[in-house]
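LAB NOTEBOOK - FOLDING QUEUE
OPERATOR: T.R.
BATCH SIZE: 2
PURPOSE: Compare the predicted structure-token outputs for two unrelated chains run back to back under identical settings.
PRIORITY: normal
REVIEWER: second-year student, initials M.K.

ITEM 1
FIELD SEQUENCE / FIELD STRUCTURE:
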Amino acid sequence: MTEFSYSARDAAGTQVSSQLTAADRKEALRIIRSRGLTPIKVSEGSSPSDKGKKGGHSISARIKSRRKSPKTVKVGRRHVLPFLKNFQELYKSGLPIAEALRILHNRIKDPAQHTINKRLLRSVQEGRSFSDALAEFGPVIEPSTINLIGAGEVTGSLHEVLGRLIQYRENQREMRSKVVTSLVYPGIILLVAFGVVLFFLFGLMPRLQSLFDSLGGQLPFITQALIGTADFLLFYGPFLLAGFGVILVGTWQWYKTSRGRLLLDRFFLRLPLVGNMIIFAETTRITQTLGLLLENGVTTVESFKLTERTIGNAAVALAFKDVRQKVLEGVAVSKALESMALMPDIMIDLISVGENTGNLVPSFYEVSKIFQKKLALGLSALSGVISLGALFFAFLFVALVVFGIVSAVFSVSSSLGQ
């Protein structure tokens, strides 16, 4: 028999610590649950010889499992939200965490989600808390998510925290989906316009050049310019594409550096329409994250620290770092956010009122909704501008080609008539 020290939570959510004697860890966990407790941490106090035996057995078992284990399934961030939704559906019915994970083990069909569930179940059965088990996934799960779940476990409100967290993640996914959807149509228009240009330059113009050369006569300047452009692109086009590819790869590698990312992100913020879209998206993310963290009991300083990690634009993140420092020094949240110059005065006033009345979380959510609407309208406007620009360019080029062809026909006809 082995001595075990454990920490657990009773039905009222109070954390208790004690010791027990059991044959192994599984037996210890069973005894703890039979007492109506939810285990948080279980530590074994075995002799060195026992540990050596256990360690040797663990190593041999690990070697065997590696030999028999199938191909490793890669777990990404996109798999976390569906798994949490499946887990919450069972957990909200009153099942313990380990029991909910055990049931999910046989229900989940997606390989990545099954891998998440398997690792979590093993960690929880070994006595770790749910948040500590999630922390083992490293960069796949954000620190803010782990901290929120940990706070929910300590306060006994894990179900409510999971519900808010899932809603927040779904809002984020919906926002990204809107951005992608808004850019699909102008992207198709640009592709079609580019295809039309290539067809006229490389398909139509060489044939017309052969026809005009056989007929003789002086071609108008516009026709000569179009034919010259087609010849230039046919000969130098591959070199231009190769040079463009080198520049693109070099710029991407430079963007991966901290200085390059900061400079390019600042440049993006200065672009018309695009800069506004970035500001709207980042402000929405900032206010949503702050509201979620503060609502679930995370301290203000820690909330700002975790929110800073979620910001995608390096220039905005740098400005928000100064805001976090001011909050740490005791400056009011509304005054600190005002220094970023991202939000209009009416939004700052809304946050200030919420701060003074003790309702800061609803104020953050209200500002988030306002900027979400601004982002949707801005995306619609940006999509329209790109689409109209592409269509205008395509129609202008086609008109230019038609004018060049008609001018050449009249010029050749006049030469033949003489």
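ITEM 2
FIELD SEQUENCE / FIELD STRUCTURE:
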Amino acid sequence: MTGVAGGEPRRAVVLLSGGLDSTTALALARRDGFTCHALTVRYGQLHAVELAAAARVAAALGAAEHRVLELDLAPLARSALTSPDLAVPKDRPAEELGAPGDVPVTYVPARNTVLLALALAWAEPLGARDLVVGVNVLDASGYPDCRPEFVRAFEALAQVATRSGGFRVHAPLITLTKAEIIRAGIALGVDYGLTHSCYDPAPDGAACGRCDACHLRRKGFVEAGVPDPTRYAPA
């Protein structure tokens, strides 16, 4: 992706959760010359730690603007991330993560569809024609809305759902492993200590070290050969 056309910088709306992937996607968009408008959505997730991480990342990576939008999906989208009565899975075997047909209870129904729709709603009046999302189909938890088919389908929808069309959905991490994502970010000077990935953090914000997100994050740093800056709760 490139953010320069005819010598003029281009605007992009970047979905920013405060996690490792969305942070790297923002860094890549900035590298490619986009003026980045970061959008974080408080969609009813139980833990606000990632919202604070998103604010840190947006400031550190030079987003032109960072907006936090409140849209509570919890009454509709039942998930371990939005419903306190559902337990976040812990200590799942590595071979189960992302296995065909495995959609864990941490999946938030239609979340990425809703978030991209919000990004599109902001992009059109901004004059931005590029949406950036950090979805990833490898080293992921098996969510259906992180697949290339989803990204292509939403991009097609954006052409007929707007006044002028001409939108592109960039998913620069879609086929990368966590290790490759981390290496790409490190090459751009990303400080992953600013980010947060854990699905079930301790009250003080420490990562649990046992959920799917923590497992994949740890694995990525090990395979990348990069020290993991994450603060984990005592075992």
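REVIEWER COMMENT (ITEM 2): The chain has one domain: 8-224.
FOLLOW-UP: none requested
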